[in-house]
Amino acid sequence: MTRVLIAIALAFIVATAIAVVYARHEHRVLFVELSRLERDRDELNIEFGRLQLEQATVAESTRIDQIARERLGMKTPESGDVVVVRP
């Protein structure tokens, strides 16, 4: 009877040890994935900042063009109105 209990206890101990090893392996795999995703997030945040800056720059030049046309009556010259000066 005691041999059966010892065998059952030993089986549970081995199963638990295998489960611990598997859990630690999964933890490592998931940690590596988390690190990669955080790096990707940081790169995307940097790109988003660049795009916001570019959008602000484009919006500013568009705003200047709009003001020049409305307030100052400026317009893009026709191709016949452009004179090229050569040295």
From TrEMBL:
<keyword id="KW-0175">Coiled coil</keyword>
<keyword id="KW-1003">Cell membrane</keyword>
<comment type="subunit">
    <text>Part of a complex composed of FtsB, FtsL and FtsQ.</text>
</comment>
<dbReference type="InterPro" id="IPR011922">
    <property type="entry name" value="Cell_div_FtsL"/>
</dbReference>
<dbReference type="Pfam" id="PF04999">
    <property type="entry name" value="FtsL"/>
</dbReference>
<protein>
    <recommendedName>
        <fullName>Cell division protein FtsL</fullName>
    </recommendedName>
</protein>
<keyword id="KW-0132">Cell division</keyword>
<keyword id="KW-0472">Membrane</keyword>
<keyword id="KW-0812">Transmembrane</keyword>
<dbReference type="GO" id="GO:0043093">
    <property type="term" value="P:FtsZ-dependent cytokinesis"/>
</dbReference>
<dbReference type="GO" id="GO:0005886">
    <property type="term" value="C:plasma membrane"/>
</dbReference>
<keyword id="KW-0131">Cell cycle</keyword>
<comment type="similarity">
    <text>Belongs to the FtsL family.</text>
</comment>
<keyword id="KW-0997">Cell inner membrane</keyword>
<feature type="coiled-coil region">
    <location>
        <begin position="27"/>
        <end position="54"/>
    </location>
</feature>
<keyword id="KW-1133">Transmembrane helix</keyword>
<dbReference type="GO" id="GO:0032153">
    <property type="term" value="C:cell division site"/>
</dbReference>
<comment type="function">
    <text>Essential cell division protein. May link together the upstream cell division proteins, which are predominantly cytoplasmic, with the downstream cell division proteins, which are predominantly periplasmic.</text>
</comment>
